[in-house]
Amino acid sequence: xxxxxxxxxxFFFIIAISFSSYANAALFxxxxxxxxxxxxxxxxxxxxxxxxxxxxxxxxxxxxxxARIWARTGCSFDGAGRGRCQTGDCNGLLQCQGFGQPPxxxxxxxxxxxxxxxxFDISLVDGFxxxxxxxxxxxxxxxxxRCTADINxxxxxxxxxxxxxxxxxxxxRTNEYCCNVGRxxxxxxxxxxxxRCPDAYSYPQxxxxxxxxxxxxxxxxxxxxx
Length: 226
Prior knowledge:
Layout: H1 9-23, E1 26-32, E2 38-43, E3 46-50, E4 55-60, E5 67-72, E6 76-77, E7 83-84, E8 106-110, E9 117-123, E10 132-136, E11 145-147, E12 160-161, E13 164-165, H2 168-172, H3 175-178, H4 188-196, E14 212-215, E15 220-224
Parallel strand pairs: 1-15
Antiparallel strand pairs: 1-4, 2-3, 2-5, 5-8, 6-7, 8-9, 9-14, 10-11, 10-15, 12-13
């Protein structure tokens, strides 16, 4: 180490920090099993067209929070990656830089949090567009989540949207459904989602039965139309 001058320390420090953040990174395998093309989206990660049976793998740094993966449907993009999607659109970009427009089924996660646990869930708080599975596939963690009900086909008339089924918060924008202030509980509309996908978030404060954990360093898979 004596051969490393002080002027070299910042460089080696930056390399060490960079290596550390990726040493415990999580791999997410995203697969499209739908009988139609979807445009997978991820923040962080960007986006990619996935025809039936295709897979996209993203590498997410340790400590990442407020992350999500979803499917976009009914998309059309030009050669510059600009266009529009019927569901899940993220500001008209193929490579998403922000969250998608409802309705869209969400895989949400935060890595290496309290006690070095990963927290993950499927959320219908932004509505539903395609069935989804979100499961760990390494590290001995085996409890996954599925939401595969025919939510679009049975969607209440008030929540129907082109290509999907809206959550009531998107439609009515009231505190009763959006939980913007204070505590709130389930509603008849949120129960529609919960009855069909009991492990998924049906309203913003639906934490007790909808959040799952694995040890940090676990890898995951997200399957559209499992």
